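Much of what follows relies on a compact textual record of a protein's fold. Each token is a code from a learned vocabulary of local backbone shapes. The record below shows the convention in full.
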Amino acid sequence: MPSFSKDHSASFGTRCKCFLLITLSLFFSNCFDYEETLTINHDFSGTLEVSYVVPTRRNSDESLIKFLPTLKDEILGRLNKGFFSKNVSLKDYTYQKIVTPETDPSLFREKAKVYYKVEFQELSQIEGAMLGKVQVRKKGNTIYVKREIPTISRAPETLKKDGEKKIYSETLRLLRTSSILFKVNFPIASVCRSNRGDVNLGRLSYRLPLTETIEKTGNNSWDYRITVIY
């Protein structure tokens, strides 16, 4: 059985990180778009609307991004994953195939635009289906939501090799204009507190620049709470 030296292991680890950065830049540059609208009612039931554009496999409807499926059955499986079935069903679902001309310089010519809407009685029913790690807690007439979007890179000051720095810089350039948009609608007669985004009458919106998933270490933690005034 071959043995690996520390230098070999370090080199392998560096290549893995570089590959991850390249993959992220290819997936998210000019071929990724994600928007999520969460509507919460007085009794904390509501709807979740999700739309995104993702690259697909050649001559196939299958998404190249595992956590953003394009097929209806896969979406339902994501909504109802876990030991106990959540009995969540799609109330609306649309799929549109997008094929760019061969002259288009994009690496991924085949993409899919997906939209779906689900209804829930408790927000916790769908916390496993939303982007990132979501934890929901309800106490009285207040709902608490903690959401974390993990980062995938080391801090820039830890990058030592010129090749790694170059890939890091190029990835940031490609992601500079890309973002993920989250919107939360809630009853006007409510009080909302959030550590990120903009809070207006009956609405919370938060746009997460994709560069933050690389430039910042740790998780992007977004915490908010909504208190309904009866």
Remarks:
- Helices lie at 6-28, 72-79, 162-175, 212-215.
- The chain has a mean pLDDT of 77.
- The first strand starts at residue 33 and ends at 40.
- The chain is about 20% helix and 40% strand.
